Hints:
alpha/beta; 6-stranded mixed β-sheet; globular
Amino acid sequence: MNCSADTHAAAGTRPTVKPELAAKPCPIGAPLVVTIVGLPCRGKSLAAHKVARHLNWRGHSAKVFNVESAATADTLREISLFFKESNNVAIIDGMHLTRQSRQLLATFCSEKVFHHLLIEFSCTDKCLRENIDDTVAFYHNLDQNVDWERRLRESNELHSAMFEACSPLEGPLITVNNSEDARLHSITARGVLGAIQTAILGVLAIPVIRHRTFY
């Protein structure tokens, strides 16, 4: 006989959860997987490497794993091996635009008993324009026969249609709206825990200044 939740409530008992389905407690010192989320040209890669450098400077062992769109099974295997070598922070630099792609990582972290932090990036219109100009200039030096500005514009339009914004229900979340202007740069955090995640929050709160030549 199948017992409904109402039946359990009436009997004054609670339905039991199978041990294999129950969430495993994550020790405070467990490794951390950081999933970078956002559309192209939002400053994701620059910030990911900035965070990694800061954490390494603080004595942690952090590495940025670059993926084209979202983490794959190969990425997860690389991260598992990375953590087995006593490293403790893996930053996955990709777009991860859909909830399904992020759920893959959340499930991986839950099964492996790793901490998981989402960081979603957006930016002001001015910042986006400057990022696109910088990217176009970089790729133009590699291949001048391609209309890189058009390609980036089409890529943004394509991926914008796919993008599903992060929800706090997905797990600990930091959202960053990038701008060099400290008055416009903003950051929010939900569910951030522990010294490492707090340190990441502090790094991201500081606007990233683009490289310029001073005369």
